[in-house]
Amino acid sequence: MKRRDFLKLAAGVAAAAVSSCAEGRITAPASVHHTSARKGEATVFLAGVGRGSGEDAVRRAVRAAAEAATDFSWLSRGDSVFIKPVLNSGNPYPATTSPQAIGAMIELLRDKGAGRVVVGDMSGIEHVKLSPDKLSGSSRRLMEASGMARAVLAAGGELHFFEEAGWDAFHEEAPASPSHWKTGIMMPDILKEMDHIVLMPRCARHVLAGSTLGLKAVVGYWRTDTRLEYHREASTLQEKTAEGNTVETLRTKQRLVVAAADKILATFGPDDGYVFEPETGLVIASTSLIAHDMVSLAWLLENRQVMPSSEKDGFMDTSRMVARVGNRYVVSMLGGIGQALLSETFTKDDIRTVWDDRVLMHACRISGGVPEIVIEPVNGELHDGLRKRLTEATSLPA
Fold it and tell me: Which residue spans traverse the membrane (predicted)?
């Protein structure tokens, strides 16, 4: 049974038993809403993309936003760059990273002097499962189905899929201390060979976490046993998401975050949902992952407000019970029914504002505070009203 079909069944049971699980009745714990610590400015660069303006416009916007966000002084001629997309399934953008954005970034890195540019990921447990002595599914086939693989190869990039290297092609890294992780995080060995990392997520809803942006993309690096702990110790899944981004490889090698968000997966997620295409879409770029995600989440929330109400998934999209049952289902796929029975209770948060997101708030705490977001447009497509709304949505309340 596919995850969406399973969760539809769970939704029916939950709706009959627990009518109080609708989004309006859920609130995140007060302790995660705000952190008083503040840090310096972090700039997020936005390139506008008009609806229906075509692939070339997206590619130009990606280049413009990336070149505004960094001068690429970190990139020496011949350096290797690993691009981490989001390939949770084989579904097309925005369920996965935009092929046009990936192709544009590879071409830009080549123009700046990069040698090898490698694009890779390992898809979700519904599609790919790696064990010490067994492998089922293929991230390669999923990347081909999404259209991403063709874009990578056409732009001169290489493909890499973590499961194809095998169980032993991972190494252990420790998140920053203190953390909620009980064991180390198993990261792919190929990252040791690479000089730099560029993260290329998408802007999407997530049935469990509420959203899937840049911080959540870290799960794609992890071996199956790390993913099992992540979902089984479910009471701190949000905090572990933030902490997973503090391993040494990501702290020292990740240079840039760029996301095409001219299309939004506005409901359900991460694989399926309603695709909303705003009149003016965005490409979001920053050297700060937290700042990127704050703006990207504000953009997701804005589009969820203005999308057609008839397309909202309603109870299934917002139910705490559906998320709780769904997480246990993921644990069973990762480790079997015994592990699912041992799983902690997962709590889905009602994310109405940036400040309700436990992943983001914990990332701010462990990084020293909330950045002051500065939003800079890089082309003439971004109107002042949108810039103002996103600035207000990401400004720390008094």
Answer: none
